[in-house]
Amino acid sequence: MKTAPFDSINLNPGPIPHCQICKSKKFEFIVDMGHNAPCDSPLTKEKLNEAETVYPLRLLRCSDCGLVQIDYCVNPALLFHPDYPYLSGITETLKKNLHAIAERCVSKLGLPKNKLVVDIGSNDGTLLEGFKKIGMNVLGVEATNIARVANEKGIRSIQGFFNLNMAEKIFDTEGPACLVTATNIFAHVNHLGTLLRGIYLLLQDDGYFVSESHYLVDILETLQYDSIYHEHLRYYSLKPLIRLFDDQGFTLIDAERIPNYGGSIRVYAQKGRGHPVSENVRKLIAVEEKAGVYRPETYQNFAKDVRANRRALRSLLVKLMDEGKSVVGVGCPGRSATLLTYCGISTDLLPYIAEQANCLKVGLFTPGTHIPILDEAKMLKEQPDYGLILSWHYAKDIIRNLRKKGIRSKIIVPLPNIQIVENEM
Ligand SMILES: [Zn+2]
User: Fold this and answer.
1) How many whole angstroms from 27 Cα to the centroid of ligand 1?
2) Distance 303 CA to ligand 1 centre (A)
3) What is the CATH number of the domain that holds 141?
4) Residue 290 and residue 317 in one domain
5) Shared-domain flag, residues 170 and 49
6) Phi then psi for 378, rounded to 5 degrees?
7) 62 and 179, same structural domain?
């Protein structure tokens, strides 16, 4: 089967010269988030005495295929460094979600037991644990040291970046995969062509590739400008994805909206072109069209709302400070770096961020804004007047937990509209 040259859409670090899917050079500018430090590179105390590199962060839309994307690629070795501070198993909610994906994939796609499932970007192996429970043969591919955690749990994982060599090696030693999954890396990889070609080679004929990514409709509808960061090179909607898969020899056969990370899309692709396509795809495109995803003015309104939120949030924090109130941050997900940097919030407005004691970021400082990340025991003891919740997309659950732990501070929810929550949401 003839496929488009896969490596022509691979990106090198630096400014991105053309659309990441269709290679058009016609863009509509959406919003400039300024220069930002990589959002999952919190600093040690010693590093605060050194220079910190920041990179442009601008959001654009391709006028030809409609892909929303950023125009600068940070070297992935810097973004996904060996000490990348993230464990997917860390929250029960996330663990449950990941195990549910495994069940859903196996039943929906009718996968026979004992066949090989490969997860790319497998993190601590939580998703594969779900597949293993159901009786699948599993293998993880993970670039960071977290691969060790998976191996210790008995989830076989290769540490390294997925490429054609690795795909061939896995194929030769383990046989073809019936399913390849990539949750939350499909919008991140700079070598998108190589990724899809590698998956193509690794899959059996008519095998499946299931990915999950932030969904552009949710980003627009709930003003999630804090999900714009260098790790997210692309912000997917269905039309550009259908084109991408077709270019690379796959059929996008189904898609569904899922609540993860404030709104994501799970996309099912099948190796080979011309497979039957679910009615869900047409329905979801209708949802996208209704949300204005394919109209330029939608993005101008989005940018206007983003700028207004920045002004309002800063004004609120300055006002509270002038009134002598104490405010601290709550939770430090990757996306908080964008919000803090873009809104110009540093230790003058937020003296520290409270995090769960088992979070790998405790003891470090936020990238760009250098706010200390401390054990939430401090917040519990001090009971500040306000807590600015930075994992606001999980606000309801987090606030309930804070109350259970005895934290009585009023909680500021920054997005999609600024809200102050006195008790529970
Ligand atoms: Zn394009």
Assistant:
1) 8
2) 20
3) 3.40.50.150
4) no
5) yes
6) -65, -40
7) yes
* Per-chain residues with Cβ under 5 A from ion ligand 1: 19, 21-22, 24, 62, 64-65, 67
**CA–CA separation, 379 and 408 (whole Å):** 10
**Does residue 118 belong to any structural domain of this protein?**
yes
Q: Is residue 301 part of a domain?
A: no
Measured distance CA(264)–CA(287) in Å, rounded: 14
CA of 282 to the centre of ligand 1 (A): 20
Residue 306 counted as domain residue: no
pLDDT of the chain, 425 residues: tens digit per residue: 445 578 899 999 999 999 999 999 999 999 999 999 999 899 999 999 999 999 999 999 999 999 999 999 999 888 877 776 666 556 777 788 889 999 999 999 999 999 999 999 999 999 999 999 999 999 999 988 889 999 999 999 999 989 999 999 999 999 899 999 998 789 999 999 999 999 999 999 999 999 999 999 999 999 999 999 999 999 999 999 999 999 999 999 999 999 877 899 999 999 999 999 999 999 999 999 999 999 999 999 999 999 999 999 999 999 999 999 999 999 999 999 999 999 999 999 999 999 999 888 999 999 999 999 999 999 999 999 999 999 999 999 999 999 999 999 999 999 999 999 999 88
Tell me, in angstroms, the distance from the centre of ligand 1 to residue 24's CA.
Answer: 5
Q: Which domain holds residue 132?
A: 1-294
